[in-house]
Amino acid sequence: MTAFDSDTFLATLTPRPGVYRMLDQQGEVLYVGKARSLKKRVASYFSARPQTAKTMAMVAQIANIEVTVTATETEALLLECNLIKKYRPRYNVLLRDDKTFPYIQVSTRHPFPRFRFYRGSRKQSGRLFGPYPSSPAVRETLQALQKLFRIRPCEDTFFAHRTRPCLQFQIQRCSAPCVGEIAAEAYAQDVKDAMQVLEGRNHELVDDLVVRMEKASEALEFERAAKLRDRIQAVKGIQSLQSMDVRGDGDIDIVGCAELAGRFCVSLVYVRGGRNLGSVNFFPKAGLAERDDVLAGFIAQYYLSHEAPVEIVVDVGLTEVDLLEASLAEYAKHLVKIRHKVRGQRVRWLEMARNNAEIGLRMRQADQASVTAQLEALATVLGLPQAPARMECFDISHTMGEATVASCVVFGSEGPIKADYRRFNIEGVVAGDDYGALRQAITRRYARIKRGEVALPEVLFIDGGEQQLAVAREVMNELEISNMMLVGVAKGPDRRPGQERLFIMEDSVALTLPNDSTALHLVQRIRDEAHRFAIAGHRQKRGKARQESLLQSIEGLGPAKRRELLRQFGGIQGLKKASIMDIEQAKGIGHALAEKIFAAFNRV
Known about the structure:
Elements: H1 6-11, E1 18-23, E2 29-35, H2 38-44, H3 53-59, E3 64-69, H4 73-87, E4 103-106, E5 115-118, E6 127-129, H5 135-149, H6 156-160, H7 167-170, H8 184-198, H9 202-218, H10 222-241, E7 252-260, E8 263-272, E9 275-282, H11 291-303, E10 311-314, H12 321-332, E11 337-339, H13 345-382, E12 390-399, E13 402-412, E14 415-416, E15 422-425, H14 434-450, E16 459-463, H15 466-479, E17 485-490, E18 501-504, E19 509-512, H16 518-552, H17 559-569, H18 572-577, H19 580-583, H20 591-602
Parallel strand pairs: 7-10, 10-11, 12-16, 16-17
Antiparallel strand pairs: 1-2, 1-3, 4-5, 4-6, 7-8, 8-9, 12-13, 13-14, 13-15, 17-18, 18-19
């Protein structure tokens, strides 16, 4: 390998701000960095001063450096984050979990607003509350609000076509504004009260409810006063569950970081309106980075793709905190403060974040140790020279040949790699032909692998016996793919767990592993995951096909009227709940046709 000529490169390098990319001999990006002065920053890697282990290991592999000049350092930070996501360099801090988090959305433009689960762009109309750390947290909050304030949960199209109250009204989970069971002013007050709970203003709400209760009592409206009394008790119950409720605090994120044996966990605690909404753990890939580098990299990558709150509390001081604050403020369009030295309640929140990170990291390490042991045991059983780093498994699911779906799940050294899961809708194969379906799915998948679009696994599992395995081998021969072990996973004679037999194609041997084999447990887990993923896809496809075919089978219901019905009722589920009178309100649907549609759905 030719040594990189740093002196020649630095002689012509600009002192302006920008981003630099360090490449190895094969052109792979090793590291992406930003700099206020490209010349000074890049030169620091080649100075005579002592360097960290990470820097020395990286510099030894540098074959070339590319730079992009930017107008400002803030622009350089934004570009750096985008390039890190694009190239995923081995020496950068990589935030692998880039999912969006759920919110509660309030449709404020509707005269009778609805509270609903929402995940997506924050540019959506209405008010958003959150983010929440998980979907169950959102759904539990919605259920509590619906029970307490009886806010409608239904879609707008369903709401617009009601002529009588639905079941939610009967079980006292909705006040039925759709049919006038509650006045608009009273419903608006309920919405306002519910939003105060979401904003963390429980104390203010209780004070307001007490005033309303006393006024109702003075006006001899004792039934209304009793309802307000019950609501006060319910709101106080919510307060007691929020043991960390703090009056006056706004939106804050608390970020704690833990490190163990070169691995990191970042725990993010969400505080909204002074209420702790829960936490979520991230496990960034950090190479040889230090703890403060990991935290700075996490904050930059996470908050430049998610909206930052007004305050972020971190458990370690950051060197470029001014740059981070300026960049996040520019992205979020509001002031963002990153604080390290805090007091009072924030100290307790920060301690919780640290503890969550430490516990999450220990649990992750324990899980990985278990997976590592299983992989090593599997390598021994299959006669592999080392534990496989990537495995795939295929399964086929259908009902009497209907809606055939194939699944491909992927496992690695840390367990499932769900981002790489794939489903294949099988077309052009005789119904019930599992071999043909398997051939089509494997061909489609491994044609992409042949083109280099997907990594080649070391082991391919097929849910089936020798015949299914033979189909996979034929496909591999046709595609000229080798250096991969094919293993069939056949059920035992009684089709019970623990009796699986492994068929290995290369040696034409069959293995029956003992029930307590860790290798068998891993194979079962992979096979069961492929089975679950295939069944879920099949049920979705089958349900959609049956519902669509049901509409198509109704005489007199053409494509235009089908589209209008689905638009009016928000989909099949809304249409299934509609009455005859609701259906005939849709454009072009008469009474006779509405009766046919109602009868068709109520036979299902």
